Every structure is written in C-alpha cells, then in structure tokens.
C-alpha cells in the first residue's frame, strides 16, 4: 500500500472539507491517537529476584553422595573477594556481605550498566 501523500489528493480533500463546511456538515473528528506506552516505566515495575552468589564447586556424584552435616566444600571464590550479584540468574555486579539490623545485606562495590531507559523504543 502506498502511504506517500499525493498533493492532488490533499487538495481534493481540502476542497471537500470546504464544501461540507459551506453546507453546514461538520467533518468527522479525527480519531484520537493511541496512547503511547512507556516501555521503560512498565519494565521498572516487573519484580525480579536478586541473589548474591558466594561461589561454586564442581564435584562428582560420588562426592555429593558422601556429604554429611559437618562436611566442608571448598568453593572457587577466595575469602574476602567480592561476591557476584545476580538478577534472575544474570550477573550485574559485585558486592560484599554486611549486617543490616538482624539480617544480612549486601554492599555494592561494582555495578554494570542497568539503563532500563535504553530499552524503550
């Protein structure tokens, strides 16, 4: 479908509107434009799960089967090293564990770009 404006068609439409106006017939009101959705604002309201990953370890099923209550499993993260912050499983930065009241918390030490406004079209 050709959506380019044709000057002859535009003139014809203007003439038709003039004739209708002269005869007392009101032109149909233009349809209201659809409301533009603010994608970034909608995204900001979606709940996500934030986790702090201490580290990981690879072990065989045999080693897993032998784990007991007092077992110690060495992780691949060095003691004192910042831990990985993840949102829905995706790493977004690093943090240190702190005490916040009676709960543990995290102190962000490094954060990747989280610009949700760049998602808007």
From TrEMBL:
InterPro entries: FliN-like_C, FliN/MopA/SpaO, FliN_T3SS_HrcQb, SpoA-like_sf. The keyword Cell membrane applies. Residues 43-111 form the Flagellar motor switch protein FliN-like C-terminal domain. GO terms for cellular component: bacterial-type flagellum basal body; plasma membrane. It is a peripheral membrane protein. Pfam families: FliMN_C. GO terms for molecular function: cytoskeletal motor activity. It is found in: Cell membrane. One of its GO terms (biological process) is chemotaxis. Keywords: Cell membrane, Chemotaxis, Flagellar rotation, Membrane. It comes from the Bacteria. Its main location: membrane. Belongs to the FliN/MopA/SpaO family. This is Flagellar motor switch protein FliN. It comes from Steroidobacter agaridevorans.
